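Sequence in, structure out.
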Amino acid sequence: MGKQIRIGTRGSQLALWQARWVQSRIQSIEPDAEIELTTIKTIGDKILDVPLAKVGGKGLFVKEIEEAILDGRVDLAVHSMKDMPSELPEGLVIGAVPEREMPGDVLLSRKDLRLSELPEGAQIGTSSLRRGAQLLACRPDLRIVPLRGNIDTRIRKLDTENLDAIVLASAGVRRLGLQTRVTEYLDVDIMVPAVGQGTLCIECRKNDDMLRPILDAMEDPGTRTVVTAERAFLARLEGGCQVPIAGHGILENDRLQVTGLVAELDGKTVIRESLDGLPEKAEEIGTSLADILLERGAREILDAVYRQTANNQ
């Protein structure tokens, strides 16, 4: 009998696609393995009528799945890296980081208009404070409309709820084969992605010797390096995916460059810097970049955001 491997995943269409992709990769590495998927509902899946920033807390889309790994119900989990808190529970590790999909964001508009072409006062759907702040920095006239739900739900709401456009992660749209709905791939100069966006995270128990050879075969060292820098940046800012923080790394010609951003909710103040260095200094680069933003006032902005979201709850 081959190895028995249980994969924990959320139940959304995209999460299942990601888990099945990992399942197929494991099967190609271990053809005799018996692999099953276990669907687990997280608190982020249960609360769909409230913007994420108002729900608060970290690990909204991973906590229940991590508990299943720790108590042995599943052996590993497949997450979107951008949903991962900067600190993992004791006993768990990021076992593998596969090659990254396109990390940016895309605009889907009802009349196939690019961001610069949308009419004054256009309504754009997103519940991401990061996206909303950067959209307003570019176009202060826009109206940001809270929008939750899976990718197919949000696209349906674009068609039915009087929205002019929505913004989604490019990776999810591409993985589900929905590229024909994309109006514009937003340049990083306009929209810095979320930390880890476009990357899968395979989480497992520490020192799981049975999984180690399999996970090593799925690892992409370059993606791990970039994500390590981005997550160090996020950790130094003590941020999660519910605040207007963005981080994007590029590994090119043996140099690692990371761009970080913190913004006020209305987009009137945006602090953005880049820092580069040797790839083996990834964590140090991310931390140093965060320190630069903190020196420029990022902490005051983030504290104000936390107060504002708390008051709105």
